[in-house]
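Note to self: the last two entries modelled the partners one at a time, which told us nothing about the interface. This time every component goes in together.
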Amino acid sequence: MQPTHSAEAQAYREKVRAFLSETLPSNWRGVGGLCGDDVAGFEREWRSTLFEAGYLAPGWPKEYGGGGLSPLEQVILAEEFTKAGVPTGGSNDAFSIGMLGNTLLMWGTEEQKREYIPRILSGEHIWCQGYSEPNAGSDLANLGTRAVLDGDQWVINGQKIWTSAGQLADHIFVLCRTDADAPRHKGISFVLVDMRQPGVEVRPIRMMSGESEFNETFFTDAVAPKDNIVGGVNNGWAVAMTLLGYERGEAAAKVPLRFRAELDRLFELARSRGLSNDPLSRQRLSCCCSKVRSMQSRSWRQLTQCRCGHRRRWYGSIFKLYWSEYHQVVTELAVDILGADALVPEGRRPTTAFQTDDVGAPNSTGSWTTVFLNARAGTIYAGTSQVQRNILGEMVLGLPKEPR
Ligand SMILES: Cc1cc2nc3c(=O)[nH]c(=O)nc-3n(C[C@H](O)[C@H](O)[C@H](O)COP(=O)(O)OP(=O)(O)OC[C@H]3O[C@@H](n4cnc5c(N)ncnc54)[C@H](O)[C@@H]3O)c2cc1C
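The predicted structure of the combined assembly is written out below.
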């Protein structure tokens, strides 16, 4: 199946392609072709190019600095950027723009939008997510970080954990308990906190890949202005759920293309190891191929449904469940193909712990084994597979609610 687009949409695709060929070097192969400091340097410059061109938040209204693009144009943009192997934003923009910015546009007061949105876009504020705690992950409503109003500011005490890219951020959106006597979901507020203060401490956690991309975040009498609550005091649960919808759902346009590029690289690896005629390897490769195709079809279907106004919270759950489980299968296959070489990883490693390696990355053992290890986390972050199945069971299949 190949979707056909209108002449207007095709013209928009050409416009994006022209932008890419004007702004990228002629020998460009994708970020995966860069190493070491060149990656960070490119990403910094590329983010400002996107900012100046109005491509950083393509779906936002123009009055807030967005591109005002239609859902189809946004998908075309994401597709072309992914094929070209360039990011759609900077390292923390999944949190800053994808999660917080979108949520502020929906729930923020006009003052909050005017204060934060321009700073998010310019990169003056870099955000991370403070939801999970040692005793509150899947059961997020169990969170214990407290915010108490003292005069005109909130005083925050508690601990968050697994704060991705917290070491790069200077702001954090924090779910806090603001009414200890209310029912669990009703006494929570969504607070915007400046991390550049003595009461906020970020401690890195070492992952099994050896990298440290997430952290513990401690709040000891940290403060936030009284007006820094989004969506109203004790209404944070509804705001938090809106944000999770963005966290799980926005990837549909990019993920199948990134996985397709990754799979092509795996075909290449199998060929180079003389396994392209091995029946068992062929069977496993074709199974992965059909899963990527099915993901692509689902993403087109989701786009069509969104364009017809059928946006459902659980679309993101289906997609997240599917890609994260697929990614463990394909990376296990890669490690099997590498055999004993996987025990001594060498060469360029991925620049991020999330999803695949960058488009254009070399077929190094360092790349595949690190992605293999990182893929274990895919079925945990942004809601575990079990939690997604609970959501789908209840919301789509109409099964009885799980006992509390
Ligand atoms: C790489 C990575 C990055 C992350 N980044 C962030 C971040 O930036 N900010 C942030 O706030 N959090 C972040 N997280 C945390 C993530 O959201 C939690 O790990 C996740 O919600 C699961 O919570 P938990 O780890 O406490 O596991 P638990 O909730 O304790 O779950 C343990 C096991 O029990 C199962 N389980 C739990 N409840 C149920 C149920 N009701 N029904 C069936 N099975 C159930 C789970 O599926 C899981 O298998 C990150 C996690 C990872 C791995």
